[in-house]
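[job 4471] stage=fold_predict status=RUNNING
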Amino acid sequence: MKKYLIFLFAICIQFFSAQIKDPVKFKYNINSLPNNEFEAVLTATIEKNWHIYSQDLPEDSGIPTEMKLSSKDGIVLVGKVVEVGKKYEEFSEAFGAQIVYYSNKVLFKQKFRLKNNEKPATVIAEITYQTCDDRVCLAPNTLEFEQKVSGTGSSATILPTSANEETATSLPLTNSDTLTTAEVDETGSIEAVAKPQVGLKVESLDFANPQTDCGIAQEQNTENFWTYLLLGFFGGLIALLTPCVFPMIPLTVSFFTKGNKDPSKGKRDAFIYGFFILLIFVLLSVPFHIIDGIAGNIFNQISTSVWLNVTFFIIFIFFAGSFFGYYDITLPSSIANKSSKAEDAGGIIGIFFMALTLVIVSFSCTGPILGSLLGSAVTGSANVPMLLTFALAGFGLSWAIVFGLLALFPQALQSLPKSGGWMNTVKVVLGFIELGLALKFLSKADLVSKTFFLKRELFILIWIIIAIALVLYLFGKIRFPHDDKKAKVSLTRKLFGVLGIGFVIYLIQGLFPAERPTLSNLSGILPPINVSYLHKEGDGILGMQPSHDYFEALEIAKKENKPILVDFTGYGCENCRKMEEFVWSEPDILPILQNEIVLASLYVDDKEELPESEQTSIDMGNGQKKRIKTIGDKWSLFQQINFNNNSQPHYVLVSPDGKVINTPISGYMPKEDFKKFLECGIAYFKSGK
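[job 4471] inference complete, writing structure tokens
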């Protein structure tokens, strides 16, 4: 649920003297076609690391791009809007849906005819779109473009349109006040012209000069390759403990240290052997880079495939059966035989094939672990090849370090435990883990297909059953084919069995209603909290009922003498949901939100329309206009005007007299940063300075 979908957004707006460049630029053209037809084309050029959504989005997810064509002079649309560009698809666990978006460049095309070919017509193209990145979601933006066309007989003509035909208009955003008029400079940025009326411009909300600065430095989140390196490293260490690998450690190290007349050369060869192990595992990721180069979006597409996730589910069940000892997964013996014969070449080449032979013959134990890393990367990230490279490098690095260090300090071999039944115990435990991970892929297939039969509570219940079976195995109540029937249960197994009981108790709490989301440590694995038997519409946010109007919240704050937490959010904002589920719900955060502040959640994508008298447009030059017609537009402008920011989530602490207390913060962030932001601002407010 936590993952990872990553969204890329931006909008360019400047109010007063500050300037923000718009990473999405539109160009409007009308092409003349045969048979008195025209084609209106809106070309979106998107800066690097930003994207806009496709028009083909499922309900209750992001804001789809929408192109509308109209004319007071009368036109007839021919067909539907067509998108032309490289389409990206990925599954969003926060929305529980597959999202579609474009990066770099996309064209939106709509064909039309004039109702009266003898009369020129002004054709207006309206585009509504939204942009995101991995930290923030910006408000939806609506722009208008216009162009004149004329059709006579069999010919059609595009007429030039003056960029200055329409002037900027005042924007009534409240019943009695108006917003400042907006003018546009040659860069396309909006510069507000001061007027006596106040409107949504609140002079006291001076974000550039907060009353205090808490010194919170926010950093942009990036793909965590190092996490996969560590996962691979620990996976490699676990694989070393399996029956396929562990017995080979002393034999291999002894070969280099004792089988060579020159001890220094033996140690050098052992290090080369470790290096080749690392190299071989890294080379296993090369095919994925080649595939990605041929079809760059292939991993995004397959990761959202129902059948791919079902296939991974079946494969992981198959891996579990192998770990349980019912069968072995091995590569063809001919491959190992050929590699083993190549060892006779001697020298560095011979050492390379020794390393390759080790990797091949240990596949029955390492294959399921490597498969787990592959499944996690393919279905959990857009940058699959690099994640796999880091994961496999970590896996190989752990083996290289172990073999290298033992070659350097061969006396340490004596302290290693002897091979025995404990190695099979490690395999069986891994089998239970594979069963639990398999369920994750089935859950994702369930979410993508929108069947929603695998509810959060059912998922947890199955995990509880698997965990109980693991505990029974660790205490010797269940045995598998390769277990010693008469072996005593060791103290180590009993200790891990007790840990398993603790895990079962931890899982049980997820079956019952709670004021805040439980099992947050498993949030990336469990189904989203809204896919639940317990979730009801109208429950509010974690039991809180925030105000959705800043001025209403201000009056409440004056009565209760509390600061306001202004939460600029959106219904289609994934990072906003992540903050609410994973940060707001924390036990040291939620009481602050419930008791210390007045919460004002302002939805910048609220589609409820403003009264007709309050709807208008802002001329942005070059025939481009920004439409102001919904409540979402209103709060988006409120955020832009007063805080020079249009990203969500965006948090501002404001005193009851309407002053910004400390520096606002944006995006998904660690709990510690958000807590520091809240505590610093509230402490300053209570100090009465």
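[job 4471] summary: The two ends are 42 Å apart (CA to CA).
[job 4471] exit 0
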